[in-house]
Design a protein that fits this description.
Elements (H helix, E strand, L loop, with lengths): L2 H19 L5 E9 L8 E9 L4 E8 L22 H7 L13 E3 L21 H7 L1 E7 L9 E7 L12 E4 L5 H8 L7 E5 L12 E5 L1 E3 L3 E9 L13 E10 L5 E3 L7 E5 L7 E4 H10 L6 E2 L8 E4 L10 E6 L3 E5 L5 E7 L5 E10 L1 E4 L4 E3 L7 E6 L4 E7 L7 E3 L6 H4 L31 H6 L4 H24 L68
Parallel strand pairs: 3-7, 14-23, 15-22
Antiparallel strand pairs: 1-2, 1-9, 2-3, 4-5, 5-6, 8-9, 8-24, 10-26, 11-25, 12-13, 12-14, 12-18, 15-23, 16-17, 17-21, 18-19, 20-21, 24-25
Helix pairs in contact: 1-8
Bound molecules: 2-acetamido-2-deoxy-beta-D-glucopyranose (NAG) (7 copies).
The site of one 2-acetamido-2-deoxy-beta-D-glucopyranose has 2 residues, from loops.
Length: about 550
């Protein structure tokens, strides 16, 4: 080999190596209205469009932070007939059916674990009733996704097909597991389509005639156009003791009613706080103690005409007639850690929306729904309408989640978020790459002693080379060092993050009533554990009823 050809070879190797260590750019999936059945006009559901199987079948999915596996419905879709009146509504609300029998790429396995699925799902109080049984009862196999990816290459991953009615309610679409051992994130990472197990979500703005916007799910980073102000970052905590099954618990120290004339009125009692579990897929803004929702309704001088049985199941219904002055202000969640999230009126009082028997989604603006539900026994939650005003990022590599006030915009500028001291640093000087390797990295200053001995700028070595053999030996050494240090890094535990402080005072709510009043009201599930509802004056006694796990302790114990 001549010196020249050695140099050419070395440069080529250098390119191959440096492109291998550049982070894959993050990518975004839209959260948008999708017509589920092509032969039914306006059969819309809002979610993420995906194609699955061969030939590809289009379905609508939602990200679920509290599941590790992904669950896709086929025609045995297990809709609750007391909520979903016919099969047509079920097909639309499930986001279309995937038919495994008609897909040539579906490979059936004995069960989900055999298919390579994650071996554990949660069983925390508050989570949908059947989650703990999904793993053992679902029909399982591997299947191919052909859209919703970071490249044109299809992605094969394990899926479960539910064989029991596990969700019992209204969060109906196919469930994409985004938990700490998410098979979706793992499959993308293994296929080289994702550099970090980080995802972010903003719901967009719904139902407004003037400024409706799609939301998005970003994988591998976040969208810096859609955030504003400072962030708060808290540890993800999936332990049963945390009481929050998505791992994302926040403390709200006040709830401000923002009247149009500029007056703000706080409705939480002094020195008290409410702890909420952030559950992005839930259909409302918040589920909170009934007394809080009543106080809100009284302070805004509105009179409800009942409870909604539509897509915003359990919200409070109001007549939207000209004489009936509905509240026109906003609501602000004051988070304990220094973040204010102001939810605009358009995402707080939304039109009545339902899917009718012909599968058509109807938006009825003669009624409005206050997207709040008063709970008694169950943990308080913040649902999808909260994420119209807040931007959420989940970082499984660091075991943290981060929130900002959202900046509602259709503009987009994705920022990669890498693991501490990972590729972004390794690739210094290699140039190129679409991702911004520095912006948004939680900590670029970490010295990673493993890396300091790895010569990565191959071009420089080649330029000063004394002989082909030396260069190639150096390249091979570098290659193995990089591989070794990457292997080490991926097995390293993230650093512990100290938990946020919060103050007590939950017990001071007027809702802290004598528990002897509690009586079982609606028993909805056939399965154990039995749900107990209906402690007056929450909404449950008069509403359509609940569907989550409840073991009889009060929301005060979410700590
Ligand atoms: C769509 O709706 C039509 C009309 O109700 C129905 O015949 C068909 O089975 C539905 N599903 C698909 C996938 O087209
Ligand atoms: C995560 O899931 C994979 C299978 O997808 C499994 O092999 C692995 O043991 C799981 N990790 C943990 C920590 O449970
Ligand atoms: C996912 O799997 C991990 C590892 O087995 C487990 O710790 C966690 O509780 C599971 N669920 C979620 C939502 O992360
Ligand atoms: C969050 O804010 C801190 C400073 O408060 C900053 O160091 C960090 O980079 C921010 N995180 C992200 C993801 O922007
Ligand atoms: C603003 O409106 C609220 C509710 O109608 C009222 O209680 C408050 O006094 C008003 N504030 C001012 C400054 O007018
Ligand atoms: C709301 O107003 C109703 C009717 O005036 C009253 O009975 C109820 O106690 C009030 N609730 C709260 C929490 O203020
Ligand atoms: C990284 O290491 C160098 C030399 O060991 C040191 O000078 C520098 O301060 C370190 N930087 C950080 C952020 O620790």
């Amino acid at each position: 080999m001549s010196i020249i050809s050695t140099l050419v070879f070395a440069t080529w190797i250098g390119r191959v190596l440096s492109s291998g260590c550049e982070p894959v750019p993050p990518f975004a999936l839209p959260i948008t209205d999708i017509q589920v059945n092509s032969s039914i006009t306006n059969s819309f559901m809002r979610g993420i469009p995906m194609n699955i199987g061969t030939p590809p079948k289009s379905i609508v999915v939602l990200p679920w932070p509290d599941l590790n596996n992904t669950y896709i419905y086929d025609e045995q879709s297990n809709c609750d007939s007391s909520i979903i009146w016919n099969e047509q509504i079920c097909e639309i609300r499930r986001g279309g059916y995937f038919l495994e029998t008609e897909s040539t790429t579906f490979k059936k396995s004995a069960d989900l674990i055999d298919a390579g699925g994650a071996p554990s799902e949660l069983n925390t109080r508050g989570i949908e009733l059947g989650v703990s049984k999904l793993l053992s009862t679902s029909l399982a196999g591997t299947e191919t996704l052909t859209s919703g990816l970071n490249s044109a290459k299809p992605l094969t991953m394990p899926i479960g097909i539910p064989r029991l009615r596990w969700d019992n309610g209204y969060t109906m679409l196919h469930a994409m597991g985004m938990g700490s051992n998410s098979t979706f994130l793992n499959a993308l990472t293994a296929a080289g389509q994702l550099s970090s197990r980080v995802w972010s979500i903003w719901w967009g703005r719904m139902w407004t005639e003037t400024n409706a916007m799609d939301g998005s799910l970003v994988l591998g980073g976040y969208d810096q156009e859609k955030v504003t102000g400072r962030n708060i970052t808290l540890p993800l905590d999936y332990t049963p003791e945390s009481g929050c099954w998505t791992g994302m618990k926040v403390t709200v120290s006040n709830l401000l009613i923002n009247f149009r004339n500029g007056t703000d009125v706080g409705i939480l009692p002094r020195d008290s706080a409410l702890r909420f579990c952030i559950v992005p897929q839930r259909q409302l803004l918040m589920e909170a103690p009934g007394s809080i929702v009543d106080t809100f309704q009284n302070a805004t001088k509105m009179t409800s005409i009942g409870t909604s049985f539509g897509l915003h199941w359990n919200s409070r219904l109001f007549n939207n007639t000209p004489g009936n002055n509905l509240f026109d202000g906003d609501v602000t969640f004051v988070l304990n850690d220094g973040l204010n999230v102001r939810v605009p009126n358009s995402q707080l009082l939304v039109p009545f929306v339902d899917v009718d028997r012909s599968g058509v989604r109807n938006v009825d603006r003669s009624k409005k729904e206050l997207v709040m539900f008063g709970v008694g026994e169950e943990p308080a939650t913040l649902g999808r309408y909260f994420l119209t005003a807040a931007y959420l990022m989940v970082n499984h590599d660091e075991r943290t989640f981060t929130m900002w006030q959202a900046n509602p915009t259709t503009k987009s500028s994705l920022v990669a978020v890498q693991r501490k001291g990972s590729q972004a640093r390794d690739c210094e000087g290699s140039g190129g790459g679409n991702a911004d390797p520095t912006g948004g990295a939680p900590d670029q200053n970490t010295n990673d002693s493993d890396d300091s001995s790895v010569p990565l700028n191959i071009g420089m070595i080649a330029g000063g080379a004394v002989g082909g053999v030396v260069v190639i030996a150096a390249i091979l050494t570098a290659f193995f060092l990089v591989r070794r240090s990457k292997g080490r890094r991926s097995s390293r535990e993230p650093e512990a993050v100290s938990p946020p402080g919060y103050y007590e005072g939950m017990g001071s709510f007027p809702g802290d009533r004598d528990k002897s009043h509690l009586k079982p009201a609606e028993l909805r599930a056939e399965d154990q554990p039995v749900e107990v509802y209906g402690s007056y004056p929450t909404d449950q006694g008069r509403g359509p009823g609940g569907y989550h796990q409840s073991s009889g302790s009060t929301y005060y114990e979410l700590q």
